[in-house]
């Protein structure tokens, strides 16, 4: 085997091992440094509330909704009337 092939394969192996140790490539656009802490929802969510999921950036597309966590994961709950959807199944 030619020496440059061995050197190239060792370089690639070193870069792959370094990425594994460091946790991979992190893009500041998708993983901002100041992550927000998601709190538990103040009300017990029904299964139909689990359809409104938060984005990966822990935000909600709907206005006046807050991302919180419950038994089915991170969901968006309405800030104005959080109990409205809970009482009328």
Automatic annotation (TrEMBL):
Keywords: Membrane, Transmembrane, Transmembrane helix
Annotated TM spans: 6-25
Protein name listed in UniProt: Protein WFDC9
Keyword Membrane applies: yes
């Amino acid at each position: 085997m030619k020496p440059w092939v061995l050197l190239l394969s060792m370089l690639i192996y070193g870069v792959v091992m370094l990425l594994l140790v460091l946790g991979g490539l992190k893009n500041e656009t998708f993983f901002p440094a100041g992550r927000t802490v998601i709190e538990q929802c103040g009300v017990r969510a029904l299964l139909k509330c689990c359809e409104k999921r938060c984005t990966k950036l822990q935000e909600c597309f709907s206005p006046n909704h807050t991302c919180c966590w419950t038994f089915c994961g991170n969901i968006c709950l309405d800030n104005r009337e959080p109990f409205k959807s809970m009482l009328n199944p």
